[in-house]
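RETRY 2/3 - previous attempt timed out on the joint model. Re-submitting the same 739-residue input unchanged.
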Amino acid sequence: MYLRAEKGFDRFFSPEWNPIRQLGTLAFYMYFVAAITGVILYAFFETSVKHAYESVEMMTHDMWYFAGILRSLHRYSSDAMVLAMMMHLVREWSFDRYRGVRWYAWVTGIPIIWLLYVSGLSGYWLVWDELAQYVAIASMEWFDVLGVFGEPVATNFLAPGYLTDRFFTLLVFVHIFVPLFLLFMMWIHVIRVSQPKISAPRGLAVGSLVALIALSLIKPAISHAEANLGIVPSTLSLDWFYMAFYPIYDQWGPVALWVVAVGASVLLSILPWVPPEKTHDAPIVTLPQCNGCGRCYEDCPYGAITMMPRTDGLPYEQEAVVNPSNCTRCGICVGACPTSTPFRAEDELITGIDLQHFPLREMRLKFDAAISAANGGVVVVGCEHGLNVENSVENPDSTVKLPCVSMMPPSFIDYVLTQGAGGVMIAGCPECGCRFRYGVEWMQDRLEGRRDPYLRKRVPRERIKTLWASPLQTDLLQQTLDTFNANLKKLDGEDA
Amino acid sequence: MFGIFNNDNMVWFYAVPVLFFGPIFFAVLWNFGLKTLFKPDLVLKERQRLEREQLDRVNKRRESKAGSYVRSTHPATKPSILWVYQGVFYGGFMAALAVFSTYPPYTYSDKDKAQIKLSISHPGQHVEECRKRTSEELAKLPPNMRAKMSCGRERVAVHVEMELDGKKMFSNTSKPAGLRKDGSSSFYEKFIVDAGPHVLVLRMNDSPDPDAITATLEREVHLSPAQNLVISYREDGSGFFTK
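RETRY 2/3 succeeded.
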């Protein structure tokens, strides 16, 4: 279902601007919108029990054209962050991108959920309306059941006059420091991947901001009646993005909600190991073949390669070292290595960095078989996670399936064409949807001469085709292949 | 309206934060993507140029029959239609935020109901009485700790009961807080009840005698709809009170 949605959205937005492919960056973006609007709003906010509500009302009504819009932006961006975060979680789970080396990002995402909720809910307290009264009291009662405080904190909200400015200021600080800690955890969340995407693409940033501003004008955020601890709020307009748990709390009580919340967190935390991902041995570096150029280091999407001082006495400064606990075994490093060339004798086919379960020698054998089966036609190169090339084309023997298409160095295209194939078609994951983050981008960059190793100039570009498509687009694969074949025939005719 | 908002220099009230924070926010926004909006960097420019070139190649390929090396992902759709679809998505995004940020409303308690909140924090009596130390006991202690009276710190658990119109609503015993059990015993409970007149009875036992009643309150209360009646306990000797 998610794949279908992504495919549809790709058509309307392009993969780069597709919001459901960019949920993580969208969540980051919404955080910054909320943070910036929040800091400006703080300049107009009175941090006292008596005047907090009045100052928010002043912003909402008297200064609707500025502070009022900012208040609405602040609320809606924080709601949108919850939405983006939850969809991000479901997406990564449904695509099985939470096990193996990805456990780190998955597990560090769980405290982010907690911190986001504390950040958002503490913001609602500050308005000090009936909703704030309900949420603050219920939240404190929920924490009080743990018994970690000497006296119940909820007693600060017993009756009119009980809530002091001092305690209210503490709530303000909660709303400042917890979001800062949330930002820190978001940094921890992405720290292990190289080149994390935290800046929303331009189109998505502009589109979502315009949508939020429009919504702020159409339906501005407003407050309930001022809080009154002498009465019980009756009907409330809950923000369901943040407050869906409160009716459960009222029905089941605090202990049951703790069991649900902690149970869900523990369950999510152990999910990457239930069952653990089966993985192959990590890539090996063959030092006599490694000149320490650092291309594998630059291309590794998970920061699994570090460049260390040379240990074998060869006259190079550095050598590549693989950290197996960060490695996804995608093979992108093999594709980046300048020594990964098929133009060698069988016994010399050793590259600087190689996958143990699928070495370069085996890759060339597969290509040789595919070239032979293609019989002058097209060799189709696919990946294990995108389009299933073996089942989608009429001549499955002419296909080669790699862990990631970016494992193929451009020299293999040269090799395939010089060995008699008519063309090469590379069919990988959709753009911005690569299972290994940068496989599609790196391959495209190598082909277009923006990234080492380059495709040699002598290789005829018109005999290469790339197709970045969803695994569901099997028809498109065959259609594109048919068109490509037809074009190649015309080319062959012209050459003749 | 109040305080600072009434002063004559109100323009500065707005201008100062904008002038002070404005450049900071702008710098943050600039680094988080605004610069790519106004001043695309060289890599991005180069990439856009290549993309334009690729698009040209696609069009040329369609016109001339030659096959070419291109990205081929999706069938071409008219740009105007794309804007419409994107508008529909953002409309849906706005609608989802607008609706679920306030709707459906939640009824915490009916309008004809009231709430009684029992909140007591009270230390029980000491478990053991103070007693005078013997001279032998004093001699065993270091010189700086030879207090004549020995008073245990541990307090007894406190028991509280509440009846409303003759029906027992609450009966609980709370242990004293603290590792040495020398803190207060706390009770916190709330009850949604019908508005109107009620007879309220409270009893407490904070003594070591399990059958004793050390404090009571019996009072007729008239609860208004939506009223929040608080029952608590004062340490000044006046005992239970309602507010």
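The longest strand of chain A covers residues 378-383. Closing ticket.
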